[in-house]
């Protein structure tokens, strides 16, 4: 009885599915496609749909501009500094929250939640003033300070779940075998946390690598631009003139993120909604 | 509350409570210090700033003057702030609404697709989700480009007059482009999260309902939607929060050719007022206003997360 409607439902679903696939994939495809085209093909009124006979010239141009190389350097420094500091701080905090019961634990967790809701636009004016007073505008350290506060709450939140996921009984067993509490933690729990640390670190990397707003506020000098800033100004200055180069730059920035994202995606999705991973 | 935790601890084999141990507090010091420095201190400073006359003169060394509520009074009486606020709320609601509609729709459809199509859809969604914001923006700018953009080419191809059409010039069309970009970026999160929630829907119950003669819409309304309600609420609230604070998309599109004054949302308004225009006192007041707005909009979400937390 239900056969016919079911079949038409499947056909509708499949059609709309293919449509959704095209709409989601086409911009990404177009970015990569255009990055291989030379100026004449880009400026042809009829679009070149497939990059046959394309070249890597756009990429060469990008790598030959000093600004790109400089921005890459700044981005790498800021991102690394942010991840290392955030992971270290978040790790000890996550251990405190998930392995100890203490007064103020709940308030700390609530504060983390609330902080994640604060829009950066709501604070960047005074963050700018603060860094200005500290003489840290246009410095890697200055930007990293605000980035750490940006990724820290989520990092603690996620790591807490990973720490809590390692049963305390394992540590207890090790303690019965004569380990101290510290030894038990580092010999038993810590190795089991490695994947969680990596996943969380990668997530922090993606956030810092992509961040635009705070970079725009803190890095006002041209020689201190991060990659997203460089890319956005690349469009302003050369608007309408070098889409091939812009697409090559975009592809270069996007590829590491896409690769990393695909690796950690599954682990992170649950964190946002269920948030309260037990701990 | 305390009793419940103790019981829960015992059941889950949690570590015993070390009484008066300073260790956990020591562990929290770095995180609390970092957050205090980069968020707490600026928050206090911003409140102070919003009660001060702080413009370009002060930026060059003149002592800021306390002017009480003057900044707020100026803002509240400025129709432009209300225009920007209204615009932000409208943009937020339209974008959050469209994102939810498309995201939930896709998630529901994904259950009825053939496996191969479903994998295609998931691949596409993942790619769109993984794209960095700025790269997404440059690509869409390129797609919407006046002279060589594919969209103008295709629209002209089906007989419409879109040759050399500039999408960013008119505010309404500017926001259309911004909406396309924001929705494109945000749908994957909703679709994946809701699809994950849909796997919790009991198939037995659905089948039973079908045998009893319930049509697809009745099943959706009485079985599927109630099951995923909590997830829908959370996703909806997150979407509202995120769409109220769009900055990057608007800023970059403005730089690419929008008229700033007619396209400012709260975030870009604060930026242009403070960093761009040197009116730090006023900008701080708008920022405080935006924070209050966020608190009002997020209170229900935080409350529901807290409830979940306590139940654990």
Automatic annotation (TrEMBL), chain A:
Keywords (A to Z) from UniProt: Cell membrane, Membrane, Transmembrane, Transmembrane helix, Transport
Bilayer disposition of the protein: Multi-pass membrane protein
Transmembrane stretches, start-end: 12-32, 74-96, 108-128, 140-163, 184-209, 243-264
Ranges of residues in domain ABC transmembrane type-1: 72-264
Main location: membrane
Classification via InterPro entries: BP-dep_ABC_trans_perm, MetI-like, MetI-like_sf
PROSITE patterns: ABC_TM1
UniProt subcellular location: Cell membrane
Xref: SUPFAM superfamilies: MetI-like (SSF161098)
Family stated for the protein in its record: Belongs to the binding-protein-dependent transport system permease family.
Name recorded for this polypeptide: ABC transporter permease subunit
Species of provenance: Nocardioides endophyticus
From TrEMBL, chain B:
Membrane topology: Multi-pass membrane protein
Domain ABC transmembrane type-1 intervals: 85-301
Subcellular location per the Swiss-Prot or TrEMBL entry: Cell membrane
Keyword Transmembrane helix carried by entry: yes
Keyword set, alphabetical order: Cell membrane, Membrane, Transmembrane, Transmembrane helix, Transport
Parts of the chain that traverse the membrane: 22-44, 88-110, 119-140, 174-198, 223-242, 280-302
Superkingdom per UniProt: Bacteria
Alphabetical list of PROSITE patterns matching this protein: ABC_TM1
Similarity-based family: Belongs to the binding-protein-dependent transport system permease family.
PANTHER family to which the protein is assigned, alphabetical: BLL4140 PROTEIN, DIACETYLCHITOBIOSE UPTAKE SYSTEM PERMEASE PROTEIN DASB
Protein name: Sugar ABC transporter permease
Organism taxonomic ancestry: Bacteria, Bacillati, Actinomycetota, Actinomycetes, Propionibacteriales
């Amino acid at each position: 009885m239900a056969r016919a409607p079911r079949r038409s439902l499947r056909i509708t679903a499949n059609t709309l599915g293919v449509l959704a696939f095209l709409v989601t994939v086409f911009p990404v495809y177009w970015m990569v496609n255009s990055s291989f085209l030379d100026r004449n093909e880009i400026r042809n009124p009829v679009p070149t749909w497939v990059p046959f006979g394309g070249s890597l010239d756009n990429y060469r141009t990008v790598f030959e501009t000093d600004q790109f190389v400089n921005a890459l350097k700044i981005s790498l420094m800021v991102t690394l500094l942010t991840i290392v500091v955030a992971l270290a701080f978040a790790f000890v905090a996550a251990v405190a929250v998930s392995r100890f019961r203490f007064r103020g634990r709940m308030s700390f967790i609530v504060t983390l939640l609330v902080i994640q809701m604060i829009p950066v636009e709501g604070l960047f004016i005074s963050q700018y003033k603060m860094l200005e007073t500290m003489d840290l505008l246009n410095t890697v350290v200055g930007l990293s300070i605000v980035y750490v506060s940006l990724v820290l709450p989520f990092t603690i939140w996620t790591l807490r779940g990973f720490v809590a996921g390692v049963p305390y009984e394992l540590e207890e067993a090790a303690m019965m075998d004569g380990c101290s509490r510290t030894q038990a933690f580092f010999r038993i729990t810590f190795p089991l946390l490695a994947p969680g640390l990596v996943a969380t670190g990668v997530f922090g990397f993606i956030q810092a690598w992509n961040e635009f707003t705070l970079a725009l506020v803190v890095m006002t000098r041209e020689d201190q631009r991060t990659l997203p800033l460089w890319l956005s100004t690349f469009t302003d200055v050369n608007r309408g003139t070098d889409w091939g180069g812009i697409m090559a730059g975009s592809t270069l920035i996007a590829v590491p993120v896409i690769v990393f994202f695909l690796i950690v995606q599954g682990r992170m999705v649950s964190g946002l909604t269920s948030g309260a991973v037990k701990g | 509350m305390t009793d419940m935790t103790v019981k829960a601890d015992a059941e889950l084999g949690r570590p015993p409570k070390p009484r008066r141990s300073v260790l956990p507090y020591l562990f929290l010091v770095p995180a609390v210090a970092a957050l205090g420095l980069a968020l707490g201190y600026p928050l206090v400073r911003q409140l102070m700033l919003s009660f001060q006359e702080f413009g370009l003169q002060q930026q060059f060394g003149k002592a800021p003057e306390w002017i009480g509520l003057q900044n707020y009074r100026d803002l509240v009486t400025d129709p432009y702030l209300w225009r920007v606020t209204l615009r932000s709320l409208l943009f937020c609601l339209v974008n959050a609404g469209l994102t939810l509609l498309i995201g939930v729709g896709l998630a529901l459809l994904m259950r009825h697709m053939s496996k191969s199509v479903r994998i295609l859809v998931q691949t596409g969604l993942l790619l769109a989700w993984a794209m960095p914001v700025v790269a997404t923006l440059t690509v869409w700018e390129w797609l919407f480009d006046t002279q060589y953009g594919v969209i103008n080419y295709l629209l002209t191809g089906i007989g419409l007059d879109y040759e050399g059409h500039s999408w960013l010039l008119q505010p309404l069309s500017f926001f259309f482009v911004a909406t396309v970009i924001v929705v494109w970026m945000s749908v994957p999160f909703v679709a994946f999260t809701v699809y994950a929630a849909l796997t919790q829907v009991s198939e037995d119950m659905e089948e039973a309902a079908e045998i009893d003669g319930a049509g697809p819409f009745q099943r959706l309304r009485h079985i599927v939607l109630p099951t995923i309600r909590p997830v829908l609420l959370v996703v909806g609230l997150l979407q509202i929060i995120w769409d109220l604070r769009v900055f990057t998309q608007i800023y970059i599109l403005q730089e690419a050719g929008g008229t700033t004054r007619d396209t400012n949302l709260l975030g870009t308004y604060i930026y242009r007022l403070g960093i761009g225009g040197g009116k730090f006192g006023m900008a701080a007041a708008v920022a405080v206003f935006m924070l209050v707005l966020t608190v009002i909009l997020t209170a229900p979400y935080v409350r529901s997360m807290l409830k979940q937390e306590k139940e654990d």
